[in-house]
Amino acid sequence: MTPYAKFGVIGGGAWGTALAQLVAADGAPVRLWAREEDVVAAVNADHRNPVFLPGAALSPSLTATANLADMADLDALLVVVPVPFLRAVLAELPAGDAPLIFCSKGMEAGSFAFPIDMARDLAPSRPHAVLSGPTFAHEVAAGLPTAITLAAADTDLAAGIARALARPHFRPYVSTDVVGAEIGGAVKNILAIACGIVDGAGLGLNARAALISRGFAEMTRFGLSRGAQAETLAGLAGLGDLVLTCTSSNSRNFTLGQGLGRGEPAEALMADRRTVAEGAFSAPVVAAAARADGIDMPITDTVARLVAGETRVAEAIQALLSRPLRSEGR
Ligand SMILES: NC(=O)C1=CN([C@@H]2O[C@H](COP(=O)(O)OP(=O)(O)OC[C@H]3O[C@@H](n4cnc5c(N)ncnc54)[C@H](O)[C@@H]3O)[C@@H](O)[C@H]2O)C=CC1
Ligand SMILES: O=C(CO)COP(=O)(O)O
Q1: Fewest C-beta atoms under 10 Å: which of 50, 177, 242, 321?
Q2: Does residue 135 line the site of ligand 1, with CB under 6 A?
Q3: CATH superfamily entry for domain 186-321
C-alpha cells in the first residue's frame, strides 16, 4: 500500500492534465488545481480539458478546483506551473508537509532559481523531487509507453513516488541527481527552439544532428559546472528529452523555432498563445547564468538573441559557423 494514495496536481495545462489523468485512469481520486475557471468547469462537467489538452478523455475520478486552499489535504503534489509563474503560485500554497514533485522545465529570470531552489525558499518543510524526461503530454494521456527520470535527494521519497506513479506504460527511473534532472529539462527546451530554427530555415538534417550533438555538449558543460551528474544529462531528462523535442513538431519549442527559422518575428509568434514554449523564457536566463559562470553556450546565447529580436536568423547562423575551429571535447 503506497503512502501516496491521494495525489494533487498544481497546474491545469497540458502536462498537469496528462499527469492527473495518468494517476486517475484506474479510478484513483486526483484533484487538479487550474487557474482558469473554464478549465475547471470543463474537467468537472465534461471530463475534458479542451483548452490545453483537447482530444483526451479524462477519468471521472479526476476533479478540478480553482481554489488553492483545496489542495491542503493531499498526500503528494505534482507541481506543473510554468517556471515564470511558479514562485507566485508556491507563495499561495496552503501549509502542509506533503511532498512537492516539480514537473516544469525552466530557470527563473533574475534569481537563476530552478523550481527546487524556489521550494527551499517558499516551502522549506516540504520534501521535494523532480520529474523530467521525454514525455509529450498527449501521449502520456493516451497511455502510450513512456519512461521518465524521478530525482530526489531522499532515496526513499524517490522510490515511494516512483512506485505510486508507475503504470505498465509509464516507467519512472529513480535518481538522486535533482540538479541534473532540472538542468536537462530547462536546456533541452532552448535547444528544441534552435532545432526548429534549423528546420524552418531549411538547413537540412546534417545541421540538425550537429546542433543536437553540440547542444548536448553545451548542456553537459553547464550541468557539470553546477554539480549535475553526466549520466543524468545523458539519460532521459537530458539527451532523451533533447532528441524527442528536437525532432518533432509536436514540441511547442520546436514549432516556435520553425516560425523563427521562416523569418517570422518572435513577438508575433509569442503573442496570443495560451500555451507555453518555456525555452523562450529560459534562453536569456540560462545564457546570462552561463555568462556569469564563464561557461561557453553559443547556441543558447544565439537562441536568446533571436527570441529577443536582437539578431536575424541568417546573421546568427553565419556567426555560429564562423566561430574558430576547436577540439570536439570542448
Ligand atoms: N506539454 C508537455 O508535453 C510537457 C510540458 N512540460 C513542462 O510543464 C510545464 C507546464 O507546461 P504545460 O502543462 O504544457 O502548459 P500549457 O502550455 O499547456 O499551459 C499553460 C499553463 O500556464 C499556466 N499559466 C499561464 N499564465 C499563468 C499565470 N500568470 N500564473 C500561473 N499559471 C499560468 C496556465 O494556467 C497553464 O497551466 C512547462 O514547464 C513545460 O515545459 C513538461 C513535460 C511535458
Ligand atoms: O517537454 C516536453 C516533452 O518532454 C514538451 O516539449 P514542448 O514544451 O516543447 O512541447
Answers
A1: 321
A2: yes
A3: N-(1-d-carboxylethyl)-l-norvaline Dehydrogenase; domain 2 (1.10.1040.10)
Q: Report ipTM for this prediction.
A: 0.99
The upper half-sphere exposure of residue 111, i.e. CA atoms within 13 Å in the direction of its Cβ, equals 14
Look at the pTM and tell me if it is higher than 0.95: yes
DSSP secondary structure letters along 281-303: HHHHHHHHHHHHHT---HHHHHH
The single residue of 188, 235, 240, 287 carrying the catalytic annotation is: 188
Q: Which ligand is nearest to the Cα of residue 106, counting in written order?
A: 1
Which of 101, 276, 286 is the best mutation target for the ligand 1 pocket, counting ligand atoms within 8 Å of the beta carbon and taking the most? 276
Measure Cα distances from 105 to 113, 116, 183, 206 in Å. 11, 11, 8, 27
Contact 241 CB / ligand 2 (< 6 Å)? yes
Ligand 1 site, residue 81, Cβ cutoff 6 A: yes
pLDDT tens by residue, 158-181 = 999 999 999 999 999 999 999 999
Fold held by 7-176: Rossmann fold (3.40.50)
pLDDT digits (tens, 9 = 90+) for 82-109: 999 999 999 999 999 999 999 999 999 9
Each residue's pLDDT tens digit, 10-60:
999 999 999 999 999 999 999 999 999 999 999 999 999 999 999 999 999
**Percent of the chain whose pLDDT exceeds 70:** 99
Spans of all domains in the chain: 7-176, 186-321
Reduced to 3 states (helix: H, G, I; strand: E, B; else coil), residue 176 is coil
CB 18 within 8 A of CB 80: no
Q: What grid cell was written down for 313?
A: 536568423
Rounded to 5 degrees, what angle do the CA atoms 225, 192, 321 make? 75
Alpha carbons 172 and 148: distance in angstroms, whole number: 5
Task: Look over the chain and give the mean of its residue pLDDT values, rounded to a whole number.
Answer: 96
Residue 62 dihedral angles phi and psi, to the nearest 5°: -95, 115
The verdict on whether 188 is a catalytic residue reads yes
